[in-house]
Amino acid sequence: MHPVITYDFNGVKHIRQGSNVRAVTGDEFAIFETLKDLERQGKWVEVRDLCEVQIQKTPEWLTPYLCAGVAYANLGQERQAIPHLEHVEKLAGDNPDYSAASRILSELRRDQE
Question: What is the pLDDT of residues 33-47, one digit of tens each?
């Protein structure tokens, strides 16, 4: 049986194999801390670039999609922001950690009208 891997908003990885579940703080948790620092400093190009690399490494972790969408929006690149945010909105369900995706999407869509 293959393990099922999921991620918390902050990058904590959960590995489920049968009824056994392990939580691991690895590279993703460190990346999350770096992203928070870069966002706080308004370094949107760095946020975007780090997120795009991380999306390739861990496509099942939604936080890099959200942060990339925010970075693209702050860089005035709405066409790139929207697909990232739509991906989060579609897969996050009602997880409040990702509610910013819907809010930002609404703003971007309103701006395009």
Answer: 999 999 999 999 999
DSSP string computed for the chain: -PPEEEE-TT--EEEEETTEEEEE--HHHHHHHHHHHHHHTT-HHHHHHHHHHHHHH-TT-SHHHHHHHHHHHHTT-HHHHHHHHHHHHHHHTT-GGGHHHHHHHHHHHHHH-
| Residues paired with 7 in a beta bridge | 13
Superfamily per CATH, domain 27-112: Tetratricopeptide repeat domain (1.25.40.10)
**pTM of the predicted model as reported, rounded to 2 decimal places:** 0.93
